[in-house]
Design a protein that fits this description.
Blueprint (H helix, E strand, L loop, with lengths): L5 H11 L12 H5 L13 E5 L5 E6 L4 H14 L1
Antiparallel strand pairs: 1-2
Length: about 80
């Protein structure tokens, strides 16, 4: 999910071949609820939420890790079940 509009998400999915839904939070309402909105400035920070197949939030990562780190974390969570 990002503050990008749906058209930007469509272009991103087309460019990258993403096969998962991309959610838009154009007004930043979700970012505010999950601590991704800076308190004074209208700037959102990057947070990565890893949610398992059952819909359980398994990890929150500040910033954007490199792909190797992200894949290792996903593998670790998958191994835990």
């Amino acid at each position: 999910m990002s503050r990008d509009d749906l058209e930007a998400h469509r272009r991103f999915a087309e460019k990258t071949g993403a096969k998962f839904p991309l959610l838009s939070d154009e007004k930043g309402e979700v970012a505010k609820r999950y601590g991704g909105q800076l308190p004074i400035l209208p700037i959102t920070t990057r947070k990565l939420f890893l949610i398992d197949k059952r819909g359980i939030l398994r990890a929150i990562v500040d910033g954007m890790p490199d792909n190797a780190t992200l894949l290792a974390e996903i593998d670790r969570l998958n191994a835990e079940g």
